[in-house]
């Protein structure tokens, strides 16, 4: 976080290109911090599932980067946040699936990213919105693949899974 402060200082001193480069390094350091916390089991992260922890951590980093963009005007922070948000949402939804049901997790993750892409229509136009929309539409298409095997314990599971994907597309297109 300190390196992001240095980037902000550089931008305010009239060195925007250098600030963007330093902010890029700071983003990588933030992601390494997320990994180090998990690898060392700090703050009880061993008790949380890997997908759930990583999803929440990436969403926290994305929110932090959006705050940096709002305060400092550093563009790379918003680009990184737009790239991290779909991955974080996917992993969080994937981790919410029942244990051992990979297809259900992939289906839920794709649906969640598809909804995030739809919500991206509320974001001001720009590269960030394009990144989120592209992730949402891609996930919407990919959600059809695991829908075949999702929710195996439910009666008529394929019907419900495909209806949910159709609902996500309906939400996106309306």
Classification by helices and strands:
mainly alpha
Alpha-carbon Rg, integer: 18 Å
Say how many strands there are: 0
Rounded mean pLDDT is: 92
Largest sheet: none
Helix content: over 70%
- In percent, how much strand structure appears in the residues? under 5%
N-end to C-end Cα span = 40 Å
Count the helices. How many? Answer: 8
Low-confidence stretches: none
Can you tell me the overall shape? flat
Order of SSEs: HHHHHHHH
Describe this structure in words.
The protein has 174 residues and is mainly α. Helices cover 78% and strands 0% of the residues. α3 packs antiparallel against α4 and α5 (102-119) packs parallel to α8. It starts with a helix and ends with a helix.
Ordered list of secondary-structure elements with their pairings:
Layout (H helix, E strand, L loop, with lengths): L1 H11 L3 H24 L10 H23 L2 H22 L5 H18 L7 H16 L1 H4 L9 H17 L1
Helix pairs in contact: 1-2, 2-3, 2-4, 3-4, 4-5, 4-6, 5-6, 5-8
